[in-house]
Design a protein that fits this description.
Blueprint lengths: L3 E4 L3 H14 L2 E7 L6 H5 L2 E6 L10 H11 L3 E3 L9 H9 L3 E2 L4 H8 L1 H10 L15 H11 L3 E5 L9 E3 L5 H16 L4 E5 L5 E9 L5 E13 L2 E7 L6 H17 L4 E10 L2 E8 L6 H8 L3 H9 L16 E8 L11 E3 L1 E3 L6 E5 L5 E3 L6 E9 L2 H13 L2 E3 L5 H9 L1 H5 L24
Parallel strand pairs: 1-2, 1-4, 2-3, 4-5
Antiparallel strand pairs: 6-7, 6-8, 9-10, 9-12, 10-11, 11-14, 12-13, 14-19, 15-18, 16-20, 17-19
Helix pairs in contact: 4-5, 12-13
Length: about 450
């Protein structure tokens, strides 16, 4: 087992990894930017190293600085958390060259799944169902139009690299293709350094379902069930839950088996998430996230499995601590992402939190870096907390989430707590009638072809 792990991240996920390491008896190293000098992950790590100024490119995305911090502190391994460098094949390769263990998949797998066009081909070969689309990148308007005619409008143009809604455009008419293609290519180039895009059939209001997998280096690979992530805005998930009301036990077993077989086909190790769109009872593969997900706590709540500790054990060469037959699902869990944003306009709301209190109570878990008099920086992601509840059934999980949100106090900045209370009270949510267009009732309707209209 490792003696010391460097956490190449910040905020609540850095604290989450510190918690797992403390339970395993592993020392931790926090890295931080100048803006995060007084953050909790710095306070609670055993050691800390400043790696640069506030700008992410000069700190949390600075691979040489992170590797140097690991070397000078004698860290055995690096946990990347999520975001930043968590899906960087380059960081994984540098770690390998420096004899530091990267707590994540093999760099070849990260690179394969990071290229969505190649990932589609690999997963299709492995037997996962696909949406109709181009076999690879499309370079010209003529080729894109031909693909669209073949599969039928509307279609969506997607960046081969990256995610988060950048390099995406929905196209409903042939006359829109040229402008949409050029815009998506420019956005992809600016965001990811690669302007390649591909074309895929666009679904208007599917459900977004993802399966969590874990695999060790001894050939053992399991799934931990699914998460429903349909409630999202501009491709950013707002609320997740497990299990999904759309799946029966039979479908769960079938899809879980397909996902495990697909993961084995590419020799997947460590934690990963296979994402699908579910439309009219049919699943379609979307992508693989080769990292820990923000929403991993809902899976932990219903399975009782600590995913972060399993990640660490796997990276250390240990076998999975359980078999597929030992994975059980108990009750229902919901996660709300609390962002520092205006709940009506979604405008960012950075600043100093003067009072912060989130009650616990039965079935409530709070993952956060926030506290009274802490600063929510404008330099990074706006999420300040994750509230996760668990109940014997979905109704109890919802009731516990409402209770927790209603008793939450955050003074000094605006947050999305009021928005989540509206979502929880929406009859369609209560009834489980969900889809990726769910949030349209809470925000101005996007124009066709815009980022907000894309899945």
């Amino acid at each position: 087992m490792f003696k010391k792990i460097l956490i190449a991240n910040r905020g609540e996920i850095a604290l989450r990894v510190i918690v797992a390491c403390r339970e395993l008896g592993i020392k931790t190293v926090a890295v931080y930017s100048e803006a995060d000098e007084n953050s909790l992950h710095v306070r609670f790590a055993d050691e800390d190293v400043c790696i640069g100024p506030a700008r992410s490119a000069d700190s949390y995305l600075n691979v040489p600085a992170i590797i140097s911090a690991a070397e000078i502190t004698g860290a055995d391994a690096i946990h990347p958390g999520y975001g930043f460098l968590s899906e960087s094949a380059y960081l994984a390769e540098v770690c390998e060259a420096c004899h530091i263990r990267f707590i994540g998949p093999d760099p070849n797998v990260i690179r394969l799944m990071g290229d969505k066009a190649r990932a589609r081909r690999a997963m299709k070969k492995a037997g996962l169902p696909m949406l109709p689309g181009s076999d690879g990148p499309v370079e010209s308007e003529e080729k894109a139009v031909k693909v669209a005619w073949d599969i039928g409008y509307p279609v969506i143009i997607k960046a081969v690299a990256g995610g988060g809604g950048r390099g995406m455009r929905v196209v409903r008419l042939p006359s829109e293709m040229g402008a949409a293609l050029r815009t998506a290519q420019r956005e992809a180039e600016a965001a990811f350094g690669v302007g390649d895009v591909y074309v895929e059939k666009y679904l208007e209001n599917p459900r977004h379902i993802e399966f969590q997998v874990l695999g060790d280096h001894h050939g053992n690979l399991v799934h931990l069930g699914e998460r429903e992530c349909s409630i999202q805005r501009r491709h950013q998930k707002l609320l997740e839950e497990s299990p999904s009301l759309a799946l029966t036990d039979k479908i769960r077993r079938k899809m879980g088996s397909l996902v495990v077989d697909a993961a084995k086909a590419v020799q997947y190790t460590n934690a990963g998430t296979f994402e699908f769109l579910l439309d009219d009872g049919k699943f379609y593969f979307m992508e693989v996230n080769t990292r820990l997900q923000v929403e991993h706590p809902v899976t932990e709540m219903v399975t009782g499995i600590d995913i972060v500790k399993e990640q660490i054990r796997i990276a250390a060469g240990e076998r999975l601590s359980f078999k597929q037959s030992e994975v059980t699902f108990t009750g229902h869990s919901i996660e709300c992402r609390i962002n520092a944003e205006d709940p009506e306009t979604f405008a960012p709301s950075p600043g100093v939190i003067h009072a912060f209190s989130v009650p616990g109570g039965p079935g409530a878990r709070i993952d956060t870096f926030a506290h009274s008099e802490c600063t929510v920086s404008p330099y990074y992601d706006s999420m300040v907390a994750k509230i996760i509840t668990h109940g014997r059934d979905r109704q109890e999980a919802i009731a516990r989430m409402r209770r927790t949100l209603e008793m939450t106090v955050v003074d000094g900045i605006k947050t999305t707590v009021p928005l989540h209370l509206k979502i929880l009270a929406e009859p369609d949510f209560v009834a489980g009638r969900l889809g990726t267009a769910f949030m349209e009732r809470f925000v101005p309707k996007a124009k066709p072809g815009s980022l907000a209209a894309a899945v």
